Amino acid sequence: MSKASRYGRNTIADKLLLLGELSLLIGSSLLASFAIHHYLYIVAIEHRLINAALFAASVMLCALSVGLYDSKLRECHKGILKRVVITLLFNAILLELVIFQLFPSLHIGTLYLAAASAIAAISVSSFRALFHYNDITSISRRRVLVLGSGERASIIERRMRRNVDKRNFEIVGFTTIDGDKNAGIPEHKLQNFDYKTELYQFVVDNKIDQLVIACDERRNMLPVEHLFKCKTRGIDVIEILDFIERETGQIAVNLIYPSWVIYGNGLDLNQRFKTSLDYKLNLVLAVLMLAVTWPIMLVTALCIYFEDGKKTGTSVFYRQIRVGFDGKPFYILKFRSMKPDAEKNGARWAVTDDDRVTRVGRIIRKYRIDELPQIMNVLSGEMGFVGPRPERPEFVNQLAKDIPYYNQRHNVKPGLTGWAQLKYPYGSTAEDAQEKLKFDLYYIKHRSLMLDLMILVRTVEIVLFGKGR
Q: Which residues belong to any copy of the Bacterial sugar transferase domain (predicted)?
């Protein structure tokens, strides 16, 4: 997989969106500073430019944290406006309480920041509406031909039906290959031509950018000479596994075959975070987070104690055995969010609107406050900030039997947050566990400092909008 597609394909439309918003944010800052200058005091142009760059960078970081740069974001204009407003509020807090406190010489004034934020809210929201209304993403969509119309190819048809799933590409059609099983792909989406003799010509005539190999039976079925000719002419030829990985940010567990795992790129951790550096980075983050969140943790502990802890004598904390790195068990520490007798009938999946959850528990689970004591697990080296969520042994034993490659998620330390939590909503079934595994394997394959930082920043979105757990 190329670097350009590693964290999602950088299309022309994506670049236009980023450049457009960057220009609008810089313009908003400069316009506000010049307007305020007219009534207040003279500010040097160099000072204005530095503030404009700082304002734009800070806003874009906050926008990332609330999901505004998520390529799969599905929001109406009202939802986009809401996220823009939250972004600008976060930005004001970040600048006023952190940046300008550290560098007071950069501070033009609170009135300037308010004016810049107001102008940015109007201009960015309008730009987003115009961008999506005119479907600017269409200018850089790849034209894709799927070689196959059987069970493997039908996964593309089933999983990528929405426009937001196909923002980077356009499916020209599916080509039936000998050996394909009937999977019910609509007739109007099938391309009827002799793929053995006419594939290259069809690709040229229809301006195909990419061929996806998705046939059920590959042995002696594919027109190798035509594929070679397409490849040498600059047409991208890609496996369905790699295609799904690139476009969805997950690995299709049900399509994996051993040679793909063994010979494919990624999944080798010897040069990544399996070193003392991993622990040192997590240690620093844990200490900083503990310093910031201890008042919240204290208030939470008191609320749990007065709700039922004082009456029952049950601890405000909850220790539960989980499966960690290399499959080794450890005790995870959380704030107790359920009643003392929640598991009197044995372990079971937590579900939405679970009647075992206390009143305080509903609040702290919604905003993930119940996870804060796991900072102690990070300090002890049992967990990291980013990684697959650790599961209970009772469930792991069964899931490992039912889901191929499930135990591979234990090749890295479990985390407080992760790629699956960003990409998948709250899940409480074995089917949900399989879907999350697809994202966990993607994370393991692409694990890097930049990806970890991006997940940490975007965890704010999980807390604010309750996307997953």
A: 281-464
Length of the chain: 469
Report how far apart, in Å, the C-alpha atoms of 220 and of each of 165, 176, 178, 225, 237 are: 32, 15, 10, 12, 17
Q: What is the pTM of this model?
A: 0.82
Query: What are residue 442's phi and psi, to 5 degrees?
Result: -60, -45
Find the mean pLDDT for residues 254-259.
78
Query: Which residue ranges make up each domain of the chain?
Result: 3-136, 141-248, 276-465
What CA–CA distance (Å, rounded) separates 25 from 285? 30
The model's pLDDT over 274-303, given as tens digits with 9 standing for 90+, comes to 555 678 889 999 999 999 999 999 999 999
Yes or no: domain 141-248 corresponds to CATH 3.40.50.720? yes
Q: Which amino acid is at 235?
A: I
Q: Are 441 and 254 in contact (CB under 8 A)?
A: no
Distance from C-alpha of 269 to C-alpha of 275, rounded to nearest angstrom: 10
- Which residues are within 8 A (CB) of 298 and not within 5 positions of it... i.e. 6 or more apart? none
Whether 116 contacts 32, CB under 8 Å: yes
The helix/strand/coil state of 238 is: strand
Sequence-ordered strand ranges (E) for 70-194? 142-147, 169-175
